[in-house]
Specification:
seven-stranded mixed β-sheet; Spore Coat Polysaccharide Biosynthesis Protein SpsA, Chain A; alpha/beta; UDP N-Acetylglucosamine Acyltransferase, domain 1; 802 residues; 30% helix; 21 helices; transferase; Alpha-D-Glucose-1,6-Bisphosphate, Chain A, domain 3; elongated; 26% strand
Length: 802
């Protein structure tokens, strides 16, 4: 006995599920629908199978091969032009030399095939249609038989006025080879529209056998989901993959759960999945391979294919997700929503019920998507955010992504120019660094590998080496891991916005050259620059200390073990008695350990070399805004008459302080390059180089000899209050125009956003470049006034959005 599996379906009603898959390859609980048909045929001793294909045939061929791995023998017959159901089988006629069965690869059934085969032989039929009874027959061929099973009426897809039976054609046929002789070769010809009506008219042995059992044509998205729910309910006789850990809940191998994970079920969870704490899997969830469900996410009646990342506190309610989708934190996907491959859903997005998103789309953060997203490019083509390129490692930031990005970046330079590469000390960042280096070489750039480094050391090396720039990769080092990529120009600064746009255009258009093999760039390692940078920095500071004869200080330094390796000689050169600790080594908190150590101050240093947190000698954390003012004071005392950039959101105490010291503050955009460009004297800045800032603080404390807490108490009282307000992208301009009109008699600055000046303080309205939100910052001498100013402007914005 032989079989023909018809697997040419496009599945247009299943889109976007079938944008990259033929309909028979759409998965049902962990494997393609067609795989269940192969299992069914094998169960009844049918091992020789022809597969007819048209739409994306390689997907089927690549999965099943010659069939040996599945215990069958498969031959493929591909249509170059549409031939119809009967015409596609005619294409395999040379294979069909005995009674054979035709079955669809895109329907799920557990029919006992021996029974219709026996019926066919007993009736000596030329063609036997396997029938079943359904409640909604409109989408099928309706059939009526006499007492002997001979078909007496047949109507394909009737209207309700034409329905004469609830017995329908399942697309499973048992045929004799002679019936295929009636099908013209190479022409479109259909079983239901052409062959069977002819056999019926001629009364040429056309029979129907009504089977009991389960049958479902996954012809639309609703039926696709319901079929899998039926499988979970045990309505289909098949071997469910995975182990049933309790009634209705099946887990495959390698599933990692948390003790707080709630499995309600019925549900299936595929191999390699990770379910973090407080994840809830509600009823009728089907989760494929290698999905990661992050903390606090809740799923119910949802289907996920493979390799998806669902971030923290997502809610999926009746949605269907294909593969390699990233849904960022706190997003909601409504009933009947369907998401295609490689879609990125921004944090806080709300996908309304029944919305469909085609593959490779990007949904911006906090988007409310009411209609299907089918045509057009990605919702956002921006690679660079306010602080460079960042994302979740191995999801947003992958080796494939950085290879393409580095190629686009390097190709914008002349062949033979040199770039540095460097990274934080993490296995993944080192992997990306190697990928970036190879990509740069491929477009003719020479590469100097600085090894593990902090960003300020990378900028220092670029300036000393005289390279055309560099790429530095950072690791957040915190629980919510992020990977970021900084592009640095020849001056050691973040590249300009125009340079960013040039790289982005090259990246999206893939419009970049490749070097010839003779022009491949060189590669060399110079993994000592962080030490060189810290030596140079320590020498400059210690020289200042010698001139000022500063007394020795004691400091408690909390930093990663990797960074401490370099900090020990750094602080020794400064003459500082440094007590080095890591978070894991502290018996007490840092707040308690600083006064116990009788230290003059405490320092918590970020791994990126940019951020830091100061603590007083009493172990009290210095407020961020007060720390900013203090760092500027230390800088200005160390560089009399200097000019330094300050972001528009920084406290206004800076101006009066600078004036008293004969220095100049230049207000700039929040962007780090703008702040650094406005800063003279090598553009070293305490807000972006933590070790430079530490040196300034130690110099100032040593020079004054006054306890840290007392110095801070000398600053005039000031208070800043901040808030974020959601605002759709399309409404930002309207809101800003309206507020300018409302406050036309108020003094304003428009360096970055709009800063409104009032008698009792100021308010800064900043439209966020990365998110659909406004940031509000207010300063006053009173915390209540600062808060009131923010609330007043919040109310204005909300009124505009109504």
């Amino acid at each position: 006995m032989k079989a023909v599996i018809m697997a040419g379906g496009r599945g247009t009603r299943l889109r976007p599920l079938t944008c990259h898959l033929p309909k028979p390859m759409v998965p049902l609980i962990g494997k393609p629908c067609m795989a269940y048909i192969v299992d069914l045929l094998k169960k009844y001793g049918i091992h020789d199978i022809a597969v007819t294909m048209q739409y994306k045939p390689d997907v089927i061929r690549d999965y099943f091969g010659d069939g040996h791995a599945y215990g069958v023998n498969i031959q493929y017959f591909e249509e170059t032009t549409p031939l119809g159901t009967a015409g596609s089988v005619k294409n395999a006629q040379a294979f069909l030399d005995e009674t054979f069965i035709v079955i669809s690869g895109d329907a799920l059934t557990d029919f006992n095939l021996e029974q219709p085969l026996a019926f066919h032989k007993q009736r000596q039929a030329k063609a036997t249609l396997v029938l079943t009874r359904v409640n909604q027959p409109l989408e099928y061929g309706v059939v009526m038989t006499d007492d002997e099973g001979q078909i007496i009426r047949f109507l394909e897809k009737p209207s309700w006025g034409e329905v004469f039976s609830d017995t329908v054609n399942t697309g499973i046929y048992i045929l004799e080879p002679e019936t295929i002789e009636r099908v013209p070769h190479g022409k479109e010809f259909d079983f239901s529209q052409h062959l069977f009506p002819t056999l019926l008219q001629e009364q040429s042995g056309l029979y129907g056998y009504i089977s009991s059992g389960y049958w479902s044509d996954i012809g639309n998205l609703e039926q696709y989901r319901q079929t899998q729910f039926d499988m979970l309910d045990g309505r289909v006789q098949l071997n469910m993959p995975g182990k049933q850990i309790r009634p209705g809940i099946y887990l495959a191998e390698g599933v990692a759960t948390n003790e707080s994970t709630r499995l309600i079920g019925p549900a299936y969870i595929g191999e390699g999945c990770t379910l973090e704490e407080d994840v809830e899997i509600g009823e009728y969830c089907i989760i494929g391979k290698n999905n990661r469900l992050s903390k606090g996410s809740v799923l119910t009646r949802s289907v996920l294919w493979d390799n998806n990342h669902i971030a923290e506190h997502n809610e999926l309610s009746g949605s269907t997700l294909t593969s390699r989708i990233i849904s960022h934190k706190a997003s909601f996907l409504g009933e009947g929503s369907v998401i295609g491959n490689h879609v990125v859903i921004g944090a806080g997005s709300h996908i309304q019920p029944n919305v469909k998103i085609w593959p490779h789309k990007q949904i911006r953060q906090n988007t409310r998507l009411h209609t299907s997203f089918i045509w057009g490019d990605n919702a956002s083509k921006s690679l660079f955010k306010t602080h460079g390129i960042s994302g979740v490692p191995n999801l947003d930031i992958t080796p494939e992504f950085v290879a393409k990005f580095a190629t686009a970046y390097g190709a914008g330079l002349a062949i033979g120019q040199t770039l540095t590469v460097s990274c934080s000390p993490h296995p993944f960042t080192r992997l990306l660094k190697r990928t970036i280096a190879a990509s740069l070489q491929s477009v003719g750039a020479n590469v100097i590998d600085l090894g593990d480094a902090i960003a300020p050391a990378a900028s220092f090396a670029i300036c000393r080496l005289g390279t055309a720039g560099g790429i530095h990769i950072d690791w957040s080092g915190c629980k919510s891991e992020l990977c970021s990529i900084a592009c640095i120009d020849a001056e050691g600064l973040p590249i300009t916005r125009s340079a960013e746009r040039k790289v982005e255009n090259s990246y999206w258009q893939e419009d970049y050259r490749r070097a010839s093999t003779e022009q491949i760039g060189s590669y060399k390692q110079e993994e000592y620059w962080i030490g060189t940078y810290l030596d140079a920095l320590a020498s400059e500071i210690s020289n200042e200390q010698d001139r000022k004869k500063a007394p020795p200080l004691r400091a408690v330094i909390e930093a990663s073990p990797w960074l401490q390796t370099f900090l020990v000689p750094f602080f020794e050169k400064l003459g500082v008695e440094a007590i080095h600790v890591t978070t894991s080594s502290l018996q007490e908190s840092l707040h308690a350990f600083v006064p116990l150590s009788e230290a003059h101050l405490g320092l918590r240093l970020n791994d990126d070399g940019r951020g830091m947190q100061l603590l007083t000698e009493h172990g009290i954390t210095v407020d961020d805004d007060l720390q900013t003012v203090f760092l500027y004071l230390c800088y200005l005392h160390n560089r009399p008459g200097a000019t330094i950039g300050a972001p528009v959101s920084a406290p206004h105490l800076l101006e009066s302080m600078a004036e008293s010291l004969g220095a100049t503050i230049i207000r700039t955009k929040e962007w780090s390059r703008a702040i650094l460009e406005a800063t003279e004297q090598a553009r070293m800045h305490p807000l972006f180089d933590s070790l430079f800032a530490v040196g300034l603080v130690l110099l100032y404390l040593g020079r004054t000899g006054v306890p840290f807490s007392e110095l801070l108490s000398l600053f005039p009282s000031f208070h800043l209050h901040r808030a974020r307000i959601d605002c759709p992208w399309a409404n930002k301009g309207q809101v800003m125009r309206s507020l300018m009109e409302r406050t036309k008699d108020t003094r304003v600055d428009v360096v970055d956003g709009i800063k409104f000046y009032h008698e009792d303080g100021w308010v800064l309205l900043l439209p966020d470049a990365d998110d659909p939100v406004f940031r509000l910052v207010a300063q006053s001498t009173s915390p209540l006034i600062a808060q009131s100013l923010v609330e007043t402007y919040r109310e204005h914005i909300l009124n505009e959005l109504q």
